[in-house]
Design brief:
Length: 106
């Protein structure tokens, strides 16, 4: 178990760090509604972040045709857009790169 000071020194954007912080806060939140609402918000943020990460990975796999996912630009763009809607910056950057490439339909 990491101490609050150790957690504060870690990357605050890392979902694993956020889960640990929520675990620590949850111990103190029992029976106190306001801190417990904060803990729930932290868990939701991590869930959404991990969902965005999964969508990004699916999009990248479809773009490259890797890990058993057939190469399909349309599917890749769909998953990358879903990841962007969930807040994924890497998905946004990859989507912008795809959009800058010639489509080959000209």
């Amino acid at each position: 178990n990491a101490s609050p000071a150790a957690l504060a020194a870690m990357d605050q954007d890392d979902p694993d760090v956020q889960v640990r912080q929520a675990f620590n806060l949850e111990k103190d939140a029992a029976g106190n509604k306001q801190p417990y609402q904060r803990v729930l918000a932290m868990y939701r943020k991590v869930r959404d972040r991990r969902d965005a990460d999964a969508r990004f990975v699916l999009g990248r796999y479809a773009l490259r045709g890797t890990n058993g996912v057939p190469k399909n630009i349309g599917v890749a763009e769909y998953w990358l857009r879903e990841a962007v809607r969930s807040g994924s910056k890497p998905a946004q950057e990859l989507l912008e790169t795809i959009e800058k490439q010639p489509s080959g339909n000209e």
